[in-house]
UniProtKB/TrEMBL annotation:
<dbReference type="InterPro" id="IPR004839">
    <property type="entry name" value="Aminotransferase_I/II_large"/>
</dbReference>
<comment type="subunit">
    <text>Homodimer.</text>
</comment>
<comment type="pathway">
    <text>Amino-acid degradation; L-alanine degradation via transaminase pathway; pyruvate from L-alanine: step 1/1.</text>
</comment>
<dbReference type="GO" id="GO:0042853">
    <property type="term" value="P:L-alanine catabolic process"/>
</dbReference>
<dbReference type="GO" id="GO:0030170">
    <property type="term" value="F:pyridoxal phosphate binding"/>
</dbReference>
<comment type="similarity">
    <text>Belongs to the class-I pyridoxal-phosphate-dependent aminotransferase family. Alanine aminotransferase subfamily.</text>
</comment>
<protein>
    <recommendedName>
        <fullName>alanine transaminase</fullName>
        <ecNumber>2.6.1.2</ecNumber>
    </recommendedName>
</protein>
<dbReference type="GO" id="GO:0004021">
    <property type="term" value="F:L-alanine:2-oxoglutarate aminotransferase activity"/>
</dbReference>
<comment type="pathway">
    <text>Photosynthesis; C4 acid pathway.</text>
</comment>
<dbReference type="InterPro" id="IPR015421">
    <property type="entry name" value="PyrdxlP-dep_Trfase_major"/>
</dbReference>
<dbReference type="InterPro" id="IPR015422">
    <property type="entry name" value="PyrdxlP-dep_Trfase_small"/>
</dbReference>
<dbReference type="InterPro" id="IPR015424">
    <property type="entry name" value="PyrdxlP-dep_Trfase"/>
</dbReference>
<keyword id="KW-0808">Transferase</keyword>
<keyword id="KW-0032">Aminotransferase</keyword>
<dbReference type="Pfam" id="PF00155">
    <property type="entry name" value="Aminotran_1_2"/>
</dbReference>
<feature type="domain" description="Aminotransferase class I/classII large">
    <location>
        <begin position="84"/>
        <end position="421"/>
    </location>
</feature>
<keyword id="KW-0663">Pyridoxal phosphate</keyword>
Length: 424
């Protein structure tokens, strides 16, 4: 947090006193925010959103010359899915039914297993969905959530906010950040021995900040563990499109559990998806959904009640979430160009991940695992004894000391590993 505050201050200084620094811009590597680093939005998604925003241009002849036919057709379809075509009205608190239908169809196409639109809750990005689930799962400080460490801080913050206990499960750096069931079981038992009721296991796949893509066998073992221990499996799958290693494939936990023969009676599963990541990178549009499979009718009613406190999520985010799950199809005018944009962005992300990993591994005292997916690298940096002593003398964690100096010397914003709970 301190690094973010310092970087904002520096950003202002660069504008007011550019000569005071050796760099001309701040490079924000502390957050997966692709469009802030120059990534361009995807044409098809933006065309549909633009038309939806001002539907009266849908009928104008000039529009045909500017916008592709399938974007126009899709905007009409979406307009027809909105009750009364009222584009500025509140929607159903769970999200517009027609858009949830599109998402369910997209999930079904991808996985080959049925998806129910009534299981889908559209949200302003994945973050509110995560808070919603934490609010529902945590009753007191005696309720715990098993989380992978290093951990994306949304989860530690949300658990703290809702007064629960974070039960850590350390990922194994030496084996490419694998999630071992033996470690999960050990931490579960330790937590139970302290009187904590562990309610859920969180898995982030592909991982943030560690970038690993779980092997299907590992996922099966995790599903089995949750079933045996009666844990809700919270599957953060926001990086599902961000897989860079040939031969590695994203499998959703729902697909894995269904392929093992388990249905909703056997395992409670919540999958989070977002428009902020993937190849779309539309972080500011605030769109996403959670697919909640299982839970009795009364629990579902509670989820709905919590969702309805905020009335509804924003309509543009809802539309975008449905579009990313139903992009142009073969035969659509935008199909080829859309795929070219998508592949261009994903291959650029993969290339840059590798370039950066190789660069890290060439630096003295630095090692770094490859990023199989997501948008991050998590290097290990061995600092000289002297630097550690100086950091300690200023009561600063050595990694935070390193990041602060990196920022002031170069304008590059990194996050200290300790911010993710990593052991130093
Ligand atoms: C693993 C993970 N989950 C959730 C989120 C939150 O995304 P959103 O923008 O959809 O709230 C992020 C954002 O970086 C993330 O990395």
């Amino acid at each position: 947090m301190l690094i973010c505050i310092s970087s904002n201050k520096l950003q202002q200084e660069i504008q007011t006193k550019p000569e005071a620094h050796l760099f001309e811009e701040i490079l924000y590597c502390n957050i997966g925010n692709p469009q802030s680093l120059g990534q361009q939005p995807i044409t098809f998604f933006r065309e549909v959103l633009a038309l939806f925003d001002h539907p009266s241009i849908l009928d104008k002849s000039e529009t045909q010359g500017l916008i592709s036919a399938d974007s126009i057709e899709r905007a009409w379809q979406i307009l027809d899915q909105i009750p009364g075509r009222a584009t500025g009205a509140y929607s159903h608190s769970q999200g517009i039914k027609g858009l949830r239908d599109n998402i369910a169809a997209g999930i079904e196409d991808r996985e080959g297993f049925p998806a129910d639109p009534n299981d889908i809750f559209l949200t302003d990005g994945a973050s509110p969905a995560v808070h919603m689930m934490m609010q529902l799962l945590i009753r007191s400080e005696k309720d715990g959530i098993l989380c992978p460490i290093p951990l994306y801080p949304l989860y530690s913050a949300s658990i703290a906010l809702h007064g629960g206990a974070l039960v850590p499960c350390y990922l194994d750096e030496a084996t490419g950040w694998g999630l071992k069931v033996s470690e999960l079981r050990k931490q579960l038992e330790t937590a139970r021995s302290k009187g904590i009721t562990v309610r859920a296991l969180l898995v982030i796949n592909p991982g943030n900040p560690t970038g690993q893509v779980l092997a299907e066998e590992n996922q099966k073992a995790i599903v089995e563990f949750c079933k045996q221990e009666g844990l809700v499996l919270l599957a953060d799958e926001v990086y599902q499109e961000n897989v860079y290693v040939p031969g590695r494939k994203f499998h959703s936990f729902k697909k894995v559990s269904r392929s093992m023969g388990y249905d909703e009676k056997d395992i409670s599963l919540v999958s989070f998806q977002s428009v902020s990541k993937g190849y779309y990178g539309e972080c500011g549009k605030r769109g996403g959904y959670m697919e909640v499979t299982v839970f009795s009718a009364d629990v579902r009613e509670q989820i709905y009640k919590v969702a309805s406190v905020n009335l509804c999520s924003n309509i543009f985010g809802q539309i975008l979430a449905s579009l990313v799950m139903s992009p142009p199809r073969v035969g659509d005018e935008s199909y080829e160009s859309h795929n070219a944009e998508r592949d261009g962005i994903l291959s650029s992300l993969a290339r840059r991940a590798k370039t950066l990993k190789d660069a890290f591994n060439k630096l003295e005292g630095v090692t770094c695992n490859k990023a199989e997916g997501a948008m991050y690298l998590f290097p290990r940096i061995c600092q000289p004894e002297k630097a550690i002593k100086v950091a300690e003398a200023t009561k600063t964690a050595p990694d935070a000391f390193y990041c602060r100096h990196l920022l002031t010397a170069t304008g590059i914003v990194f996050v200290p590993g300790s911010g993710f709970g990593q052991v130093s």
